[in-house]
Amino acid sequence: MGADNPMAISIQLLGIYRIADPDKVWADLADLSIKEYQAIEREAGERFHHETGFLAVGDPSMDYIHQVEQTMASFGTEGQDFFIYTKKEDFEQHFPFLRLSFDEHSWRGLWQPRKAGHLSPRTLALIQAALAGRNGADVIDTQLDGVHAEAEHWVLQLHGKGRLEAKKVLLAAGWNTSWLSKETERLDIKHQMSQAVLLEVSEPMPTMPVIILRGPRDPEEYWYVLPPIKYPDGRTYLKMGYEGKALNKVLSSQEESQRWMQSGRAVPELFSAAERMAKQFFPGAAFTGQRRSIVCITDATQPTAQGEQRPYIDFLQKGLAVASGGNGWAAKSSDHIGWLAAEMMSNASGWASDEVPKRALPSLLQVSFVSGHGAWRAVVRAVSHADRWDRWDPQALGFRFVEPWDVLWSQIRVRDATSGTCCAAEIDEGHQDQDQGEKNDVGMGEVPTDQALYGNLQLRAELLHEVLQGERPIQPEELQGPWIDVTSAVQCLVEQSAIRVHGSATYSKADLPGFYNPTPLRLAGTLGP
């Protein structure tokens, strides 16, 4: 962000999330990520997204709106999951705050009422880093100056903090990725200016969704719009983000990119265009006349023969991988993309696919990941989701992790997929052979729970070797903690000699009766609404 614009970091990182996209692959990645949003928020106790709905508006003579409709048809049913509007009176009835001129050309709209709104990618990144640390990852929050090969490993040069060495490195440093090593310089990535104008309003517009508008006139009809939101400076702004080409110059070098970011200010032509079109589109908005701007850089790979853009996710050399090519516009999909990157890093054979088939992506796999500094962010979701934990090896990533929870209890383990904590229970096996028809005095579930703990059940570091060498039981005082005793609560979950925990893999056990999370997440400096 611009050095002379302290608001830039917090303001720019409020963006749109939605499934409706002209590209089916990007829609898939967004859908898979959005499904995790609530689980991440429950685990963190911190919100980073707000559902408002999404309205796509386009000139029907252009491809954009038809491609969005085609994509949404594969996700749901018109009239239920999305709605199409073509008449001026339909727009005015359903979106009374919006005025579209039908004098020069007609408009066509698609309304996605659910799984769409605005999010704070910076808050999401802070949450993911905090969850990774709480689940055993070493998270170093500093700038990465460069990466180079040395003998049989890679060296990461940290800004003012020495260096790290690792056998495997994943670079996911946004638009800076291209200039971190000689290997990344050969990536065919285009860097381009991105800018937005924030217009202060004195009154909120609670029914307004996030909007993307595409028309034939650039810059007048090339915008993404966020509804009035209260920002960290205490003011409420309507964000007019410009996505055209007429005013967004391609940045050809690192020096040019750095100068653009340091300027922290949009080009003068954008101010006048944003103010003029905002007053035309939203005549009922109470604009105060106060305005400010923010700048960013988008990076994207060169389009395929079919015009598709697919960010890179692949190994450039043995041990050095990259996830790049979506900075500034792929934040909504970063959760699942980060998991894909972690899958690639943890598989001995390299890239592995998830719900998005590999055949949907080019050979030098192009998927995106939005990150802060360094190469650690992409492993975060894999660390914090237990349903995915079993399919990757954190040691293979070249970072130091404490022992996984699996070593803690040899009897029954209920690993929490969403709160970063674990439940361990020992069941008295002497009762498990009891005749099912015999009445049991124990009561709940017929199987007594000797002890059940919930919380941070990782072994204390100094006891790892001793405990793992023998077969003696692990004692509660040998755990790092904090933890709580949930013996009685777990006893109530026993049904027919088994623990029954209802809910999906992303359902937090902290919500079970008698449970609570003894290690609540604390985020310092969280930004965004």
TrEMBL record:
Natural source organism: Cladocopium goreaui
All residue ranges annotated as the FAD dependent oxidoreductase domain in the record: 24-344
UniProt-listed SUPFAM superfamilies: FAD/NAD(P)-binding domain
Keywords assigned by UniProt, alphabetized: Chaperone, FAD, Flavoprotein, Oxidoreductase
InterPro entries hit by this protein: DnaJ-like_C11_C, FAD-dep_OxRdtase, FAD/NAD-bd_sf, MTOX
GO molecular function, one term: flavin adenine dinucleotide binding
Alphabetized PANTHER family for the sequence: FAD DEPENDENT OXIDOREDUCTASE DOMAIN-CONTAINING PROTEIN, PEROXISOMAL SARCOSINE OXIDASE
Similarity-based family: Belongs to the MSOX/MTOX family.
Cofactor(s) it depends on: FAD
Protein name: FAD dependent oxidoreductase domain-containing protein
Limits of the DnaJ-like protein C11 C-terminal domain: 451-521
